[in-house]
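Entry type: protein chain
Record version: 2
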Amino acid sequence: MKNIIYDLLLQKGAIMEGHFVLTSGLHSNRYIEKFRVLEDPKALEIICKEMASKFKGIDLVVSAAIGGILLSSGVAREFGVKGIFCERVNGKMVFKRGFVIPENSNVLIVEDIVTTGGSIKEIIQILNDKKINIKGICSLAHRGDSIDFGYKYVPLVNIEIDTWNKDEIPEWLKKINITKPGSTGK
């Protein structure tokens, strides 16, 4: 089956080859540079429409900074609601900037690229302290093992990307200079 999101990632050169240290700390021979698609307003609109089409009855869209901000805003536009985001302060995910989360809101969490799901788990933890309904989670792409967040999770595309812990890197990968792409401050 043809996947328009995967095709967009390929067309924009977002799927890169090399030796990368991911935000999770894992090493990989492939990396998805999400900003190659998020920087293009037309591609961003396609992604946001696709994310919104997977859910109904959403009152608020939440994401993590930085890449998620564009997705949150774009998906929120599709629903005609607000899009807000969490950001890291001293390594901890928090809501800043006076964002209001009304009680009983039906909330959709959106994310760019998911590997371990750490940021999503942190957002869920923050939201669980509020009287809201998490209706689901949607990501642009999922790389790695399947994750059960306890809520409906819909990645737009699954991309097989091998990852290794620092002490398990294969010899052939050790010979490639390390690139550490964008970091979320973890």
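Comment: The CA atoms of residues 15 and 32 lie 5 Å apart.
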